[in-house]
Design brief:
Layout (H helix, E strand, L loop, with lengths): L1 H31 L10 H5 L8 H28 L11 H23 L5 H18 L14 H36 L7 H4 L3 H35 L7 H20 L7 H24 L12
Subcellular location: Membrane
InterPro entries: Cyt_c_assembly, Cyt_c_biogenesis_CcsA, Cyt_c_biogenesis_CcsA/CcmC
Organism: Nocardioides panacis
Amino acid sequence: MFASIVYVLAFLAHLAEWVALRAVTVKEPALASVGAPSAELSGAESAGAVPPPDNSEVFGRIGLALTVLGCLLHFSGLVSRGLASDPVRVPWGNMYEFTLAGTFGVSVMYLVLMKRHHLRWMGVIVTGFLVVVLMLDQLVLYQDAGPLVPALHSYWLVIHVLAAVIASGAFAVGALALTLFLVKDRATRRGTVRAGGYLSRLPSLEALERVGYRVNAFGFPIWTFAALVAGPIWAEYAWGSYWNWDPKEVWAFITWVIYAAYLHARATAGWKGKAASVIALVGFASLLFNFVGINFFFGSGSLHSYAGG
């Protein structure tokens, strides 16, 4: 998949961005310490040295441009997958296609929220995540394109899965932000944040936690619609009942309860920071289990077993 190759290049560009930032941080103090007898002279003038060039912005822009290109190719791959089937259909009829759609949601959500919340610092994490998941999807879950099973022939399936993909993309970006928050918080408490390192270049702990909360708060009502409105309507169309106690239905509701608990805890005094972030990450783990684990652990015991591939 060409999108995966472009995401790899985007990951390398963002990695080079952070390496360049670290190089500037390390060299600037060294230049400042080389013979500066007078405060009127700059370090470069007094030492006869030229300040190190900062290439981080160039690498960052390249990484962002490649991520946009990868997202466009990702979308083209999804469209091609649907067109390759006979008859033409939506491209989420099995786990391979669900994963393609889910990772596309992560990519789109990151790009949409990047400018508003200044998320380019997450570029190396998001592109790395996309590369790993798409690689596993191709190696483990790949299936040839084929027709949909009868239960999937409904426009409510399109609405249900589309909403779930958008919400999952938001939850993934939120989970990455909160993971970085917890890692930096622990390193800060231990005094192990290195000057010029990745953690030192991240936003403040408050900003990281706030980004995670806002993105999760954005995704929650969309997940509510996907899991508790569109899903049951589709279930009634496919199986004649709004609720069948199917493992995937139950686990989608469990995921909803966990995120509801997180948002409630986050809005309650004393539950900001580490405690609330852990609840959100438990919610994301529940989402992943619902997305993948149900198919492997319950198999034919689920009405959604056709999605296991």
